[in-house]
Design brief:
mainly alpha, homodimer, Arc Repressor Mutant, subunit A, DNA-binding, Tetracycline Repressor, domain 2, elongated
DNA sequence: TGCAATAGATAACAACTGTTATGCTACGGT
DNA sequence: ACCGTAGCATAACAGTTGTTATCTATTGCA
């Protein structure tokens, strides 16, 4: 059982060639967060979800905060890789940007889980500057991808030259974040297709 | 000290003519939430913020959850009354809708506090169906106001007849929510005026 | 004046939290 | 064969939590 796929996380400086049990711990933490809420996500609950004891968690993470930051980082990682895949697979068109932005919406259960965890952490970041800083870094990272995409579209003359990529990236991300939250609250006034249409409409307005 | 201004909250069915100490408790809870985070907002912390003991809280609220639901309801109350004021004061124009939507953005410190509390509760609602249901009701209430405004604008021929008020209300609220969260994370890529401009631009596109 | 309800203080309760130390087991290198 | 370390279990720790019961003071009403 010695799988050795490299894990390119930011915190994998420590000497670990194994698939890093920490990913399993973080995954268990995700599940508990979504099911029980962040306030009931104790080390014992995570360990129980993993089918182990708290020794596993304490052995692989210095603090609970370290675990939480790692779990939050996984959110960013998933979103960025999801977008990166689309950047490689699809042609450079406005529709590609739309597809990338749809990554943030809870289309399938996995996306829904990501969004839930993200919102839970965002709420927890209120009054916790360290966590808020992590969110800030995450947001900057995701924004950078969208800005790059907008610039590329601009260079390909798919959107107007007058468009400010930095500004519109923010607006677009704000829009998808808001739509995602609405869907999460189950306001249910907009279904998945209507949300996609709203994004597409805004992107097309940049033409 | 027998102030008797009526309080039109949803939970004020109980026989209390006083200004209801519960509002002060909720205000104290807000302050603790913003400063310390929702996880450190214990009954003792709230009481200490209020300059009293926990007896005050336990006397006026059945549970901690009752207090939390009350505090969350205050968020909705503030936002709706803020919009209602604008509806009375200003002329019926598209700019009035913009002004109403700006209510959700952290323009001053009070708005910032409201937004922070709202986000904290939203994160806490993950894994807590009862709280999530409260959010759902709140969102529905706010959306109804925006829908009404859109319909009125449509009747006044300020926006296109083809526009679907229900859909656009959702998109607009999603946009302001997202922009507010961005500002909260202090992504700081968009200043207050740029955010307002983004909203105004979308509203004008409905013309 | 006297009774009853309200407002609040205080303290004790059990449950749960993150952290830490310690013990056990299995494997990898020498 | 030996030893050190990684991986994990276990248990104890002190602190904090919401809840509850009990007690005191004040106020409104008859």
């Amino acid at each position: 059982m010695l799988r050795c796929q490299g894990s390119e996380s930011e915190a994998s400086i420590c000497p670990m060639s194994q698939p890093d049990r920490r990913y399993e711990v973080a995954a268990a933490a995700w599940r508990v967060i979504v099911r029980e809420g962040l306030d009931r996500t104790s080390l014992r609950a995570i360990a129980h979800e993993l089918g182990c004891t708290t020794g596993v968690v304490t052995h692989h993470f210095r603090d609970k905060q370290a675990l939480m930051l790692f779990a939050l980082d996984q959110v960013t990682q998933r979103l960025t890789t999801g977008m990166a895949v689309l950047q490689r697979e699809k042609m450079l068109e406005r529709e590609r940007l739309v597809a990338m932005l749809l990554t943030f919406l809870p289309q399938d259960t996995e996306r829904q889980e990501i969004l839930r965890v993200w919102v839970a952490f965002l709420g927890h970041a209120i009054g916790h500057p360290a966590l808020m800083a992590a969110h800030q870094r995450s947001a900057a990272q995701l924004r950078a991808v969208v800005i790059d995409e907008l610039r590329a579209l601009q260079q390909a003359q798919q959107i107007r030259p007058a468009v400010n990529p930095a500004v519109e990236a923010n607006v677009l991300l704000a829009l998808v974040n808001g739509l995602g939250i609405d869907a999460l609250i189950q306001a249910q006034c907009l279904d998945s297709q209507q949300q996609a249409q709203a994004i597409r409409q805004y992107v097309e307005s940049l033409r």
